[in-house]
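Notes from the pairing session

We agreed to fold both candidates in a single pass and log them together. This is the raw record for the first candidate, unedited. Please don't reformat it; downstream parsing expects exactly this layout.

Candidate A
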Amino acid sequence: MPKLGDVRLDVVYSEDTDKNVKTSDKPIERGLYITDHVEKEPEKLKISGVCVGVDANTRIEQLKSYQNKGERLVYIGRFKMTEVVIESFSVTKDKDVAEASFKFSIGLKQIIVVNSKSYESQKPATNAGYKPPISGSSTKRTHTVKQGETLSHYALWYYGSAKEKYWMKIYEANRPMLKSPHRIYPGQVIIIP
């Protein structure tokens, strides 16, 4: 029996897959094009069917909850897809289905989750007019690390210069929590001396 997450789907009468790639085409002489890059797009699956029985409404509500929360699910039917989210969801109640039954159409999209653990700066930071939030008193400032930030960023934001002497000052104030001045992680709370 088909299943999406923990929800049993009584009847699935169609499963349509959609697998595409995107290409970047560049014009060359004589009206010809060359393709220099091919990128796989997320796989999609559209399923249609019927939920029947006294608990049909409860199962429909659970599917809506999955969609609203953006939960990653597994679909098992004629096809099997992992790491999918409900991209579209419609429910129909008409004369073709019994009183406690619903027709549904669900669009699933496969996602790829990337977990980034650290960021190492390869080039000097510029502040581009960004003013970071300052927390705490003037004697003890802290900053919560966000993705992509470096100690050079903090030196530039708080001291007006990304020179080594400034970011090393921040690094030294945060030892032994920081093992290297080039490895900071989102969520860490850095002391700005």
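Candidate B (folded immediately after A)
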Amino acid sequence: MIRWLWRGVAAVALVCVAIAVGLGVHASWSVSGWTILAACALGAAAAFVNSARRRRSLQALAAAALLVLLIVRLAAARGPHVTMPTLPGGTSSRWLGRLVDEQDVSLLGARALIRRWPVTHDERERLPQEMRAAYGEMRAAVGTFPSPVLNTLVRRQAPSGFDALVFEPRGGPSGAAVVFLHGFGGSFALECGLVAEAAQAIGAFTVCPATGIGGHWAGGDGERIVRATLDYVHARGIHRIYLAGLSNGAAGASALAPRFASSLAGLVLISGAPASGTDASLPTLVVHGEHDRVASASAARAFATRNHARYAGFDGGHFVLLMRREETRAAIADWLTRREAAVPRPAP
């Protein structure tokens, strides 16, 4: 009876693996993801082998593959351009941040989102493929990188200890920094990296703190996390800081702007500028998809008009930062470059 029950569980596992393999054909999982699927398939297949010796061999092979993957992942996610200190305090990144490849979690989430969220037709058709391509571009640019995803899922992001992705500028810092606030779903290295690529235009380093899955920044824990992040940037000798946010993070950045205005050089609001929000008289760029069905483009335009902000609209939906990444990166980079050019320089 127990053996038949075990075979039933194994059969379900094999079906799940087959579905995952089918999904991976159109937007491929990472090497880590494929290794996990192969190990799961071997472990489940062992239940249908009558020979005890062969069964143990398959189980040992599956376990060995997972163990090697774990060792490689824990050792590899320490690229020179991307770190993930635990703030406040700046201690080294927590091991859970190096356990999985973020690409696999993101692709799984993207496939669920396009079935549940009011996304555009283009996003529904191409979001997983574009996400897979963007991760490839990011690896080519910065190598391996940690991720705050698992720590967020197990509720380990709090003012007393939170992950902060730090993308260092290539060629050395310029004296400016971008602090990027994530949206609903938690902090992802991919979104942080897309903004960091734009920040490269002015030699700024980018810091992306993590709060809970909801991406609530306007008060309580969110505000304290932003304050601790600004303290971290100041401790590095940087006092020209641009606060950026995506979706809920954009709404949070607008809400926090009046409280931190004296520490900020400007705002960048992406896919979430609230119609009634304020830029606290800071120079502001609003980036938005004109067909966004999650955050209103008309509200974003109203925000920009009322606050005399620069508005950059694109043919896209809520995921315009990813789907139109070259165009949005260019718009953010151009705005940052213009802002830096306007900064008074000391006389020689």
